[in-house]
């Protein structure tokens, strides 16, 4: 099968979906839904997967892009969740998406605000995290161990740190996605390669036993999709289709700093939050030079917006924490953009920050809902949901094979000989050479037009928003978005 998604394939697949009965309909194409579509299709089941908007329209594009080793669950005594995270991290790093997930260093600066007792506790945690890595059989060469650094070495990694009173730093490593939305695109395309019909701009209006009422958001027409099993993977919106599912969303905000705002930074930072011994703000340098700073955790009530807003109060709070460790404080003018996402946490007692990141698979009226969890464990969530669907409807399928199925872009040689820009290799893996070949005819704008054309032809981008906000992340900075808009229009026109 072909892994390319585009407007022509969407139209053809939509016609077929209206006529056939599929084994599994997946609703929602975030990491969980795209993962479920891949899991089911790679077991040989017939699959349709729909999203009301676009691939990675929801929470999956607003994450910190960390592929966690599970340390923080260990700290809460949730050994099973921690082990599961570490195993899934190892699978992504070494087998299924090594082009998108990389080991990334983080420095915790030992400032006067971090007492020696706290530093010792954190270092013990890092060592336990390294033991989790070993237990998950992730080789040390894929993920180096922790280390305590002297002040001079810490300043080499992060020259922006305030020098006065700096005792050194604690260095740790974890997995990081180059771009969370790209993981979702890779999952959806790999599912398409296995035969799944991937349909964006298709909203599920109602789910019931064996059928879904669906609206094509491009035309407004409705159709009934017949499916032996239905998986509801709509994240924070899951309760709208499965009323018994109770979620307690929590908002997480990140700042986007312009390239060069924190000069010389060679890794991420863990900045201790005032008044907490084990919670940290994250400073996350990106491949494009921007730096994200996160992350808040605020319970949210009321209707769930399509795109959550980052309130000014979150921005101020994050800047304040960041400035607590900087030699030269940043101001609001250094913040080029901000984004917020809603964590789909299952309702439980207590503050949302303390809620479990466990996932749950529930079924009601023949609809399997998979919710909670996190990006890191999307594969396991998908496997559990499809297992339940298979059991519920006695579908003819073997066990999941996704732990050893490389995603599109992870198969074949990577052009690391300098013939293709490293930026493209990091985002497209083995497909980077094909994207760059397109740029041969359109070398202007450092190949960006070629990237956008690639997205239209092969990655299912249907409009400017898909191109600027999800296939690339240019849209995170409003002025960059405005500047790139003509190029996005040209790519759509070139088709
Ligand atoms: C700020 C923040 C930071 C995070 N950082 C990390 C991190 O660093 N590492 C990590 O592992 N996890 C992280 N997480 C958690 C992780 O991002 C989420 O758990 C995960 O992305 C949820 O994915 P999902 O596919 O379940 O939901 P979503 O990505 O929200 O996907 C749901 C999809 O369903 C679609 N949909 C909704 N209603 C309908 C309908 N009626 N019909 C059709 N489609 C519909 C939506 O358009 C959407 O695309 C973070 C979360 C937040 C909020």
**Outline, from the CA principal axes?**
globular
Number of helical elements: 14
Q: Helix fraction?
A: 25-40%
Please state the CA-atom Rg, rounded to the nearest Å: 22 Å
Structural class designation: alpha+beta
Which ligands does the model contain, each kind named once? flavin-adenine dinucleotide
**What is the end-to-end distance?**
21 Å
* Beta-strand segment tally: 18
What is the overall pLDDT average?
93
- Major β-sheet annotation: 10 strands, mixed
Strand content: 15-25%
**Which regions have little confidence, pLDDT < 50, spanning 5+ residues?**
349-354
Keywords, separated by commas or semicolons:
495 residues; alpha+beta; ten-stranded mixed beta sheet; globular; binds flavin-adenine dinucleotide; 34% helix
Structure description:
With 495 residues, the chain is an alpha+beta fold. Helices cover 34% and strands 22% of the residues. It has helices at 7-19, 31-42, 71-75, 79-96, 116-135, 151-157, 180-193, 312-323, 378-392, 422-428, 432-441, 448-458, 464-471, 478-494; strands at 21-27, 47-50, 66-67, 101-109, 147-149, 169-177, 197-199, 202-208, 211-216, 222-232, 250-257, 268-272, 280-285, 291-294, 298-299, 335-343, 359-364, 367-372. Strands 3, 4, 5, 6, 11, 12, 13, 14, 15 and 16 form a ten-stranded mixed beta sheet that branches. Strands 1, 2, 7, 8, 9, 10, 17 and 18 form an eight-stranded mixed beta sheet that branches. A hairpin with a 2-residue loop joins strand 8 and strand 9 (211-216). Helix 2 crosses helix 9. Residues 349-354 have low confidence and may be disordered. The structure holds flavin-adenine dinucleotide (FAD). Residues 27-33, 50-53, 57-60, 62-66, 68, 203-204, 233-237, 241, 252, 295, 341-344, 373-376 line the site of flavin-adenine dinucleotide. Flavin-adenine dinucleotide binds at residues 27-33, 50-53, 57-60, 62-66, 68, 203-204, 233-237, 241, 252, 295, 341-344, 373-376.
């Amino acid at each position: 099968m072909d892994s390319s998604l585009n407007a022509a394939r969407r139209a053809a697949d939509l016609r077929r979906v209206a006529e056939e009965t599929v084994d599994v309909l997946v609703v929602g194409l975030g990491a969980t839904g795209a993962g479920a579509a891949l899991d089911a299709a790679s077991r040989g089941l017939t699959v349709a997967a729909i999203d009301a908007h676009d691939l990675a329209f929801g929470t999956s594009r607003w994450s910190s892009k960390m592929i966690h080793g599970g340390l923080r669950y260990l700290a809460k005594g949730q050994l099973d969740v921690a082990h599961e995270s570490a195993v899934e991290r190892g699978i992504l790093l070494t087998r299924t998406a090594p082009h998108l997930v990389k080991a990334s260093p983080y420095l915790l600066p030992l400032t006067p605000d971090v007492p020696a007792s706290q530093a010792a506790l954190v270092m013990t945690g890092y060592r336990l995290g390294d033991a989790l890595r070993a237990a998950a059989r992730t080789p040390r060469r894929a993920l180096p161990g922790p280390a305590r650094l002297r002040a001079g070495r810490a300043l080499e990694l992060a020259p922006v740190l305030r020098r006065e009173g700096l005792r050194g730093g604690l260095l740790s490593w974890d997995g990081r996605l180059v771009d969370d939305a790209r993981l979702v695109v890779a999952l959806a395309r790999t599912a398409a390669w296995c035969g799944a019909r991937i349909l964006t701009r298709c909203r599920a209006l109602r789910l019931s036993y064996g059928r879904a009422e669906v609206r094509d958001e491009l035309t407004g027409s409705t159709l009934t999709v017949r499916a032996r099993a239905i998986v509801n993977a709509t994240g924070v919106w899951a309760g709208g289709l499965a009323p018994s599912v109770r979620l307690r969303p929590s908002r997480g905000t990140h700042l986007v700093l312009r390239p060069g705002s924190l000069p010389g930074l060679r890794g991420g930072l863990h900045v201790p939050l005032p008044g907490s011994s084990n919670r940290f703000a994250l400073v996350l340098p990106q491949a494009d030079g921007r730096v994200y700073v996160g992350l808040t955790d605020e319970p949210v009530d009321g209707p769930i917006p399509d795109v959550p807003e980052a309130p000014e109060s979150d921005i101020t709070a994050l800047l304040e924490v960041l400035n607590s460790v900087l030699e030269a404080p940043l101001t609001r003018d250094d913040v080029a953009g901000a984004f917020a996402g809603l964590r789909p946490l299952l309702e439980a007692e207590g503050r949302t920050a303390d809620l479990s990141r466990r996932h749950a698979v529930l079924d009601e009226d023949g609809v399997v809902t998979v919710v909670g969890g996190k990006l890191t464990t999307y594969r396991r969530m998908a496997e559990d949901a499809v297992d339940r669907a298979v059991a519920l409807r006695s579908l003819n399928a073997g066990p999941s094979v996704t732990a050893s199925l490389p995603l599109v872009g992870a198969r074949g040689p990577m052009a690391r000989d300098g013939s293709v820009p490293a930026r493209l290799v990091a985002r497209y893996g083995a497909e980077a050479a094909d994207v760059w070949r397109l740029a041969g005819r359109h070398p202007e704008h450092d190949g960006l037009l070629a990237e956008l054309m690639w997205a239209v032809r092969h990655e299912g981008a249907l409009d400017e928003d898909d191109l600027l906000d999800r296939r690339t992340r240019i849209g995170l900075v409003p002025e960059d978005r405005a500047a790139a808009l003509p190029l996005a229009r040209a790519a759509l026109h070139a088709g």
